[in-house]
Write a structure and sequence with these properties.
By secondary structure, the protein is α+β, with helices and mostly antiparallel strands. The protein has a domain at 3-96: Ribosomal protein S6/Translation elongation factor EF1B (Alpha-Beta Plaits, 2-Layer Sandwich), CATH 3.30.70. Helix content is 30%, strand content 35%. It is built from three helices and four strands. It has helices at 16-32, 69-81, 102-112, and strands at 3-11, 36-52, 55-66, 85-93. Strand 2 (36-52) and strand 3 form a beta hairpin.
Amino acid sequence: MPLYEHVLLGRQELSTAQVDALIEELKTILEKGNGKILKNEYWGIKPIAYKIKKNRKAHYTLLNIDAEPAAIAEMERQMSISTDVLRFMTIRVEEHEEGPSAMMRKSDRDDRRGGRGRGDDRGDRGDRKDFRGRD
């Protein structure tokens, strides 16, 4: 069967349990079409670049799916009806990525850096003049 990666943005007002229930509904729809969810990664609540249906944040979830195109079409149809889903995107892939996704690896990398922020590694800026041109 074809392989898909699916990213789902849920409303920020939803609880984590409600997001899990939404994923279970999608799993049921896929199983009716002889498909299955191979991996489910919850990325958390993250800010959105622009408002979507009056929301500035959303629950992000990645699903790796193995299903027939008809099952994917039905799943997307159900999501377009749901008021809890802000946006979704499904992409057909040749193979699924092993291990955690890039979003999850990013947080691991940040943890290894010791929690330093962006500006901490710039070093001493003593050679620069005052912004008004004074020394």
